[in-house]
Design goal:
The complex is a heterotrimer. By secondary structure, chain A is mainly alpha-helical. Helices cover 68% and strands 5% of the residues of chain A. Chain A starts with a helix and ends in a 20-residue tail after the last helix. By secondary structure, chain B is mainly α. Chain B has a domain of 244 residues: Orthogonal Bundle (ABC transporter involved in vitamin B12 uptake, BtuC), CATH 1.10.3470. The longest helix of chain B is centred in the first third of the chain and has 32 residues. By secondary structure, chain C is an alpha/beta fold. Chain C is built from 19 helices and 24 strands. In chain C, the strands form six sheets. Chain C has a six-stranded mixed β-sheet with strand order 6-9-10-3-11-12, sandwiched between helices. A six-stranded mixed β-sheet of chain C has the order 18-21-22-15-23-24, sandwiched between helices. A four-stranded antiparallel β-sheet of chain C has the order 2-1-4-5, covered by helices on one side. In chain C, helix 15 runs parallel beside helix 16. Classes of the chains: A mainly alpha, B mainly alpha, C alpha/beta. Chains in contact: A-B, A-C, B-C.
Chain lengths: 421, 428, 536
């Protein structure tokens, strides 16, 4: 560890606490700015939603705009002052909750004298978060073992493509999913061989995967499918949502969590499984040790290379699943370049979540939320250009990375090839 | 006692007995590995690309279905497809040499230049396409030399293009020798600032520049969208900027249809400038030192923070110039689909050129000419343009893992010294 | 009698080796026959024969680079030998990986700890041999209980739930020992165990070793410290240049005989140097306080001066604040309190470059990491911190001819063995790399030289050369601050010796008057009173 970095960490700590306080003050001021033009108005959040023909009723959440914003702004302001004077123990949690408060304030302001279907927005947030979350999980497995996987974007794209073709050929969506996962694994194998066996710089290796993916998918698409054989791009209708009996009728929460695509349920299960795997099983412990201190693991008889290979392959499989979800799980066909940066967003979510499954999911939700708010709010004609709103998740990631929110806990050996003698 | 011990394990000489014809060709002739490895990588990638083309064509597949009856036909069909595709690419890239010669003769006789210009258009187009590649490749190469991954060249391109376009269409009444440099300067500054932000974050907080530059890319795309949909849109509402004034055009060398503009030579000049800067100036030395060993650099008194930001700024300025010069020389306006991935391809270029300006120029010319020829390859031989991307990807793989090429051609095992971007925890 | 005298007596007692257990029947536990291992260009182990008897403490003594660690790594399965065989309890053993070694009851505690800082003690200990329930779920309770058992048995107090990164170095070493015992090792190998320990921690460590042996374990430990070996080992095997030079016991050997076995000839323990005529104060340090990476006080109010024409040596076990002190003086670690003046200039908060420009030079502790850019040519390394000054640069333009000419001159002047100045610095041997750094620093007009472990890991020839140049600089009127954990180096070079312990300077004594015992006590933190001095 660089001494200089550690020494300035002391100064950074003080600086960071001050920065967080400052950030919160600015946020409070911005919230107060929203107060203008809101007196006498009322914000309505519709919580009822119609799914599969059934209306899952819930009372509308109606709040007086001016007083709510004032209350929230004051809350943030008080927190900011406390932070500057005393400082919080758990700055992480504080910042995240204050950001949530800020978002709430913004939403209240945006719906002044209008109404917004909040439940619908949350449902769509989860849907949009899913590919990102799968990408984040994919990154997690790889990076926890010490291998940086920038190529997730390419693995997802290949997964999207192969799953469509396979499903079209076999006439079966499940075959498609299996094929998509396999495609991800194959690309991951390439990444693993390059970065583990040949000790290629992992960023370079990941970049080459993306370029190869982009090239191959587009090439084969144009040469064999569009125009020659469009039937290879017709896998049938995408996977439909499956409602879990009873649970889906719970007001508000039901439609969000219990009436979604089966892949989303798989995602939930994967998240829980991953958390248990990494922190409570022996294989998880070993993988983490390889990512933190491969030399130590090696001296204890653990096969560093083998564990890294396995982790990277799992990573590829999950990425392939994510890609398949984007094609046959959502829209039902393949478009060139359809991964559209979700792989990178997934990595950002993973970093945002401090390399933990729970945090990564939270990060993905935030991105998914911003994504769906971008759409909904443009309909609302908020007055702030949608493109600028669309920048929010990226700026948020950069803020997180800069360490404004707590200390980043990257696996210590992440990104460094391990060479045995 | 005082004799130096043998060289570090990495620096071994070539095998005494070359094991393959390739070995004899290269090693015996004393050609350094740094030269023949990229050449072989590109060659191998083209060969593989050729096979991909061949087996995508129905004619070849047909021929192979009757392989056992008529093996020769299958092989001939394969070779035919490859030859067709690559010769189309060649003509698309360079033009037809015979045709050019004929036209030169004709022009000498009659003074009619139109047909001559048409015949050299493919060549000039390739040069036009290479121009942004050269500069963007330099941008990434400078980053690599400083130990930094600038994946944000794409975003820096866009931001610079917008800035230069603005100066180009909004500022009136200036003569070209002020307006043009001003627009170029605007572009460079925009790119530099855009890259300096992740640079600063890296220096001050240690945040990895890969993710940050990627984030800045997306922010740049959104910003461009916003500007093109609103403030900087044309009066008729289309998401295109107004056309840049003629005083901010980079002049062309020859009349239409040849689009070659001075930007190509500016690009070459920039390459020379980068070489001078990195190897002949104190700042360049500092950048390379920080890239090679930041601790020692600090010990030597260099401010790693300042150099990190400087490196990213220069890299961003160059990336910005790539966009600016292309825009001011060719398009004369900014559109949403401004770049076919120059920023991303630039990474491949820098790797292929070993982050050295000369290598980058050669690699950029290669890619530019490939791209120039690809359109013709697609229209004539039916091979999709994306083949180039596949070849690019393969080239990166081969360059990054030289052992593959070495193994394939059974070459000696002398190792290439790798560049600073490879940080091995165990050190040398 | 003063308290100090008592302390001296007790210390002497502690350091005396325990008598061999009379019940020992001298069974051969481990035998290495003809072990040979070469790396490109160097033969690390050359037909080594070694025997370990049950219940004994065997010390493997040798200089840096003698092949000790390589040998032990072979024994532990991290390397495989080119030739030779290993017999455990009489039968041939094939050890291809640490797993095999662990299986045979061999455990190793490495010089650089192999711990995962973000894991708990229990997680570190169980890694690789995890206790599980239901197929794969970790059973932390079982592991904690076992660890507590081992703690009690061997006196290794540690909290299984603590995070390793929060523990002190001494406690971390205990975790490493527990790791080994957890795997039921009978043969424990320690590689330079006291290199990073404070004297008290070293004491604790020796106590633990005795406890281990009392309970039937056998111990091999690698070291280059003569004092330790005499104090604790039952037998001593000396390695030199990859070969076994001899095996002896503390009773039969003296420090001098061991030293000459290690080095191969009569060791001149003092460097020839004339008397000193110190002049003005060059370096003035007052009440300096510096924090370490963990924000704890590493340098605690240190005051001293160094004059032109003298060498002040700072002795002390590694880890007592010397590193942080040197970094503060070089401008890499700003002090939080106190004052540093070089030739009248306040450099307390200056940058490395400013300090250098005042006329100071620094030879860093870690030459490859801090002193050189290995991928750059030798010529560039020779101007690594002066490239921006005339004549090497005019404005921002580098003057390559000037650089190359100066490089050639320095290579000759300082006898750097290399075929050319354009080769990468990585192609040089350790000794020549250090000469590059010395050449670079000494070629300027310097008034102050700070040398940190300048001969670490070097062969004897290079050591003599560098010592000679340092004395030469002193004679030219330079002030020299020498920091080294090697007491012999300090004693032979210094005019005055300061001893650093726990961040403070306990005493500064003239070199010609002081004895090794005095210094040893100071290094252990024991400050004799005036009365004790009289008694000595």
């Amino acid at each position: 560890m660089q001494q200089s970095a550690m020494l300035s960490a002391l100064i950074k700590n003080r600086r960071r606490n001050f920065t967080v306080g400052l950030f919160l003050i600015v946020e409070a001021l911005l919230i107060f700015l929203l107060l203008g033009d809101t007196s006498g108005k009322v914000s309505t959040f519709v919580l009822a939603i119609t799914r599969a023909g059934t209306n899952i009723g819930a009372p509308d959440l109606v709040v007086p705009t001016w007083s709510s914003i004032l209350a929230l702004g004051t809350l943030v302001g008080v927190t900011a002052l406390w932070q500057l004077i005393r400082g919080f123990q758990r700055t992480n949690a504080v910042v995240i909750s204050m950001v949530a408060v800020g978002i709430a304030a913004f939403l209240i302001w945006a719906t002044r004298d209008k109404s917004l279907n909040l439940t619908g927005m949350l449902v769509s947030s989860v849907i949009r978060a899913t590919p990102i979350a799968l990408a984040a999980l994919s990154g997690l497995y790889s990076e926890r073992s010490g291998v940086v996987n920038i190529g997730i974007e390419g693995m997802m794209l290949m997964g999207a493509f192969v799953s469509v073709v396979a499903a079209s050929v076999a006439g079966n969506l499940y075959v498609g999913f299996a094929a998509g996962i396999l495609a991800g694994v194959v690309l991951a194998l390439l990444h693993a061989v390059l970065s583990i066996r040949y000790s290629v710089n992992q960023i370079v290796s990941g970049t080459s995967i993306i370029i190869l993916s982009l090239g191959l998918t587009s090439y084969i698409f144009r040469a064999f499918i569009d125009p020659p054989h469009p039937e290879l791009n017709s896998p049938g209708s995408p996977l439909a949502a499956v409602a879990i009996p009873f649970l889906w009728r719970i007001p508000v929460v039901g439609p969000i969590l219990f009436n979604q695509s089966p892949i989303i349920y798989i995602l939930f299960m994967l998240l829980i499984a991953t958390q248990i795997f990494f922190y409570s099983t022996k294989w998880g412990l070993r993988i983490r040790s390889v990512g933190e201190n491969p030399k130590a693991a090696d001296t204890l008889g653990i096969n560093v290379s083998r564990l890294r290979y396995i982790s990277v392959l799992i990573s590829g499989g999950i990425a392939g699943l994510g890609g398949a979800y984007m094609s046959i799980g959502s829209v039902g066909f393949f478009n060139e370049g359809m991964s559209a940066g979700k792989g990178f967003l997934g990595l950002a979510a993973m970093i945002f979540g401090n390399w933990n499954p729970g945090g990564a999911f939270l990060g993905s939700l935030v991105f998914g939320f911003f994504d769906s708010w971008q759409e909904k709010l443009s309909i609302l004609q908020v007055g702030v250009p949608t493109e600028l709103l669309g920048m929010a998740p990226y700026i948020a990631t950069m803020i997180v990375l800069a360490g404004f929110i707590g200390r980043s806990r990257m696996p210590a050996a992440d990104g460094t090839p391990y060479e045995k003698q | 006692m005082g004799k130096p011990t043998a060289k570090s394990p990495r620096a071994q000489g070539p095998d005494p007995a070359p094991r393959s014809p390739w070995s004899r060709l290269f090693v015996r002739k004393g050609i350094p590995e740094m030269v023949y490895l990229p050449i072989l990588s590109v060659f191998t990638a083209f060969v593989i690309g050729g096979f991909i083309t061949a087996f995508s064509a129905t004619t070849t597949l047909d021929a192979w279905s009757t392989f056992f009856q008529e093996p020769v036909r299958a092989l001939a069909a394969t070779w035919g497809t490859i030859r067709e595709a690559y010769s189309a690419m060649f003509v698309g890239a360079f033009g037809n040499p015979i045709e050019v010669f004929r036209q030169v003769m004709s022009w000498i006789q009659t003074g009619e230049s139109k047909a001559l210009l048409a015949s050299i258009r493919p060549l000039s187009e390739s040069m036009v396409i290479s121009t942004p590649y050269i500069i963007a490749g330099l941008a990434v190469a400078v980053g690599f030399r400083g130990g930094l991954f600038n994946i944000g060249a794409e975003g820096q391109l866009f931001v610079s293009g917008m800035a230069a376009a603005y100066v180009g269409y909004a500022v009136h009444g200036l003569p070209w020798f002020i307006h043009l440099p001003l627009a170029i300067l605007a572009g460079a500054l925009a790119g530099a600032s855009w890259a300096a932000i992740p640079g600063y974050l890296k220096a001050a907080t240690g945040a990895h520049e890969v993710i940050n530059t990627i984030m800045m890319n997306y922010i740049a795309f959104r910003l461009t969208e916003f500007l093109l949909n609103g403030p900087m849109a044309r009066p008729d509402g289309l998401p295109i900027t107004p056309e840049v004034l003629a005083t901010a055009y980079i002049p062309r060398l020859l009349p239409m249809p040849v689009r070659l503009h001075w930007g190509f030579f500016i690009a070459l000049a920039l390459a020379a400038l980068v070489y001078w800067f990195l190897w002949k100036t104190t700042y360049g030395m500092e950048i390379r030192m920080v890239g090679a060993n930041p601790r020692a650099a600090r010990y030597a008194g260099i401010s790693v923070t300042r150099i990190t930001v400087l490196t990213m700024a220069i890299s961003g300025a160059l990336a910005g110039l790539a966009g600016t010069i292309h825009m001011l020389g060719v398009e004369h306006r900014m559109v949403r689909a401004f770049s076919p991935g120059y920023g991303f391809d630039a990474i491949a270029l820098a790797l292929l050129g070993n982050s050295h300006p000369l290598g980058v120029v050669l690699a950029a010319l290669l890619f530019g000419f490939m791209r120039g020829g690809a359109a013709r390859m697609q229209s004539l031989a039916g091979t999709p343009v994306e083949l180039i991307r596949v070849i690019q990807g393969l080239v990166i793989v081969f360059i990054a893992a030289p052992e593959i090429i070495r193994g394939l051609y059974r070459l000696s095992s002398a190792r290439l010294e790798r560049l600073p971007q490879r940080r091995n925890a165990d050190g040398v | 009698m003063g308290v100090g005298h008592h302390l001296i007596q007790n210390t002497r007692l502690m350091l005396r080796p325990r008598a061999l257990n009379k019940d020992l029947d001298m069974t051969e536990l481990l035998e290495l026959r003809g072990i040979t291992k070469s790396f490109p260009g160097v033969r690390a182990n050359d037909h080594i024969d070694l025997t370990l008897y049950e219940g004994e403490i065997l010390a493997i003594l040798g200089e840096n680079g003698a092949g000790k660690t390589t040998l032990m790594n072979i024994l532990y399965g991290l390397y495989s030998p080119d030739e030779g065989e290993i017999l455990v309890r009489g039968s041939k053993a094939s050890i291809h990986s640490p797993r095999d070694a662990i299986h045979l009851g061999i455990g190793m505690v490495h010089q650089h700890f192999m711990l995962v800082p973000v894991f708990t003690v229990a997680e570190n200990v169980m890694l690789g041999v995890e206790s599980t329930r239901l197929g794969g779920f970790l059973d932390r309770q079982v592991v904690s209980d076992r660890i507590r058992g081992i703690s009690a048995r061997f006196g290794l107090k540690v909290d299984p739930g603590a995070f390793v990164e929060d523990l002190s170095v001494g406690v971390q070493q205990r975790v490493e020992i527990i790791k080994v015992l957890y795997r039921e090792a009978d043969i424990l190998i320690f590689d330079e165990p006291t290199a990073v320990l404070t004297p008290q921690e070293a004491e604790d460590f020796f106590r633990v070793v005795h406890s281990l042996v009392d309970q039937g374990k056998s111990v091999i430990f690698i070291t280059h410290k003569l004092k330790e070996v005499q104090a604790i080992a039952n037998r001593i095997t000396v390695l030199r240049n990859g070969r076994v030079v001899g095996t002896t016991t503390p009773a039969q050997a003296t420090e001098a005989s061991l030293a000459s076995m290690m080095v191969g000839r009569e060791v001149i323990l003092t460097v020839r140097k004339g008397p000193t005529k110190p002049a003005d104060i060059v370096l003035d340090v007052a009440d300096l306080r510096v924090l370490d990476d963990r924000h704890l006080t590493a340098v605690d109010g240190v005051t001293f001066q160094v004059r032109a024409g003298e060498i002040l040596g700072i002795a002390g076990v590694q880890g007592n604040g010397q590193k942080e002190l040197v970094e503060a003086l070089a401008g890499l670690r700003p002090p939080v309190d106190g004052h540093v003046e070089i030739l009248g200039n306040d450099t307390s908060q200056s940058t490395p470059r400013q300090i250098r420009e005042v006329g100071s030079a620094h030879v860093p502790e870690d030459r490859q990491r801090d002193g050189l850019v290995l991928s750059f040519p030798i010529a560039d390394n020779l101007v690594l911190n002066t490239y921006y000054e005339r004549p090497f640069a005019r404005g921002i333009n580098l003057q390559r001819q000037a650089i190359d000419a100066a490089a050639r001159q320095r290579v000759e002047q300082f006898d750097i063995r290399t075929p050319g100045i354009f080769l990468q610095a990585s192609s040089l041997s350790g000794g020549n790399q250090q000469k590059v750094i010395v050449a670079r620093e000494f070629s300027r007009k310097i008034k102050l030289l700070i040398a940190s472990q300048p001969t670490r890991g070097l062969d004897v020839g290079s050591i003599e050369y560098i010592h000679g140049r340092i004395v030469e600089k002193r004679d030219e009127g330079c002030a020299v601050l020498l920091v080294s954990p090697e007491l012999d180096e300090i004693m032979s070079l210094s005019d005055r010796i300061a001893v650093m312990f726990a961040g403070k300077i306990l005493d500064i004594l003239p070199a010609k008057d002081v004895t090794k015992e005095e210094l040893g006590l100071l290094m252990a933190g024991i400050r004799p009173t005036a009365q004790d001095r009289l008694l000595q």
